[in-house]
Design brief:
The protein has about 290 residues and is an alpha/beta fold. The protein is built from 8 helices and 12 strands. The protein has helices at about 25-40, 80-85, 125-140, 170-180, 200-205, 220-230, 235-240, 270-285, and strands spanning about 10-15, 45-50, 65-70, 90-95, 100, 105-110, 110-115, 150-155, 185-190, 210-215, 250-255, 255-260. A 5-stranded mixed β-sheet has the order 2-1-3-7-6, covered by helices on one side. Helix 6 packs antiparallel against helix 7 (about 235-240). The protein is elongated, with a radius of gyration of 20 Å.
Length: about 290
């Protein structure tokens, strides 16, 4: 149950956004619209790193007593620990330190700013990933559906050298699912770090592969880059995008494997509840 006092608070959802793909912002707007519909907060705003409205100005004009900021990002990494706090001026330099630190609760005059954890590190992401993996196989059968015990599950992330924490959310989900012993194998793979997405064929011992992108939005990475890394023709992928078609046909046989490629997790309706839980967690943490 969420406090009725949130009526005097504003919620700010922050996404990455894109200047190349308008669909990138869709999940952020989707969840903002849902939370407006529920009437939990006095105001709900959105902001983006790569498009308007910009992060730097999103707090301008907000008069509410409290402001809760929730990053719609997968990991606690470069963007959530450095970029967003810098844009919102949440980094504080101590009197005896040259290093700036992030303070998640800050007073600004009569207003209190709460900076919450990203949605992607929430424990319920495990169930979202499993649901996505199950959904894509059931929706696109190739004869009798393969048992998970005969299938290798890959969780695909971006990866970055900017912050070592960026890959931990993906690796943690792979570990949690692996511990359940549902799939023959479970691996984390990355676009820009090892092990790479394109090595999935050599890594999987099973014939059946399910790849779930742990991305908030179905943007260029999930719609174009990953299908190409999986072996799809770049020209075919671009043409399918132009026509508004799925860029990967499920399942596709590639390098002796049968590959299902799922949707990103960002449009999952449950994320609206995860956002609320992140807000509630920050309230409790502030009291403690």
């Amino acid at each position: 149950m969420y406090s009725a006092n949130f009526k005097d608070a504003a919620l700010v959802l922050i996404g990455h956004g894109s200047t190349l793909n308008a669909d990138s912002a869709a999940p952020t707007h989707q969840h903002a619209d849902e939370l407006r519909r529920r009437g939990v907060f006095g105001q709900v705003r959105v902001a983006f790193w790569k498009q308007e409205p910009a992060i730097r100005t999103v707090l301008d004009g907000l008069q509410t007593r409290r402001v809760f900021i929730v990053p719609l990002f997968i990991s606690e990494g470069y963007f959530t620990q450095e970029v967003i706090p810098r844009e919102l001026e949440l980094l504080v330099q101590g009197p005896k330190s040259e290093v700036q630190s992030l303070e998640r609760v800050q007073r600004r005059g009569a207003q209190t700013i709460y900076y919450c954890g990203p949605v992607g590190t929430h424990d319920s992401m495990t169930e979202v990933l499993l649901a996505r993996a199950c959904e894509v196989v059931e929706r696109f059968p190739a004869g009798p559906a393969p048992a998970p015990s005969d299938t290798t599950l890959f969780i695909a992330g971006h990866g970055t050298g900017n912050n070592e924490n960026s890959r931990r959310a993906i690796e943690r989900q792979a570990e949690l699912i692996r511990a359940r012993k549902i799939y023959a194998e479970v691996h984390a793979v990355f676009m820009e770090e090892e092990p790479r997405i394109e090595t999935c064929y050599a890594m999987a011992r099973s014939r059946n592969i399910v790849m779930v992108p742990l991305f908030v939005s179905d943007g260029l990475h999930s719609q174009e880059d990953i299908p190409v890394l999986l072996g799809a023709s770049p020209a075919v992928v671009k043409e399918r995008m132009r026509l508004g078609q799925p860029t990967w046909h499920n399942p596709t046989e590639m390098q002796g494997k049968l590959v299902w490629y799922a949707r990103s997790i960002g449009s999952e309706p449950h994320l609206a509840d995860v956002i609320l839980e992140r807000v509630q967690e920050q309230v409790v943490a502030a009291v403690d």
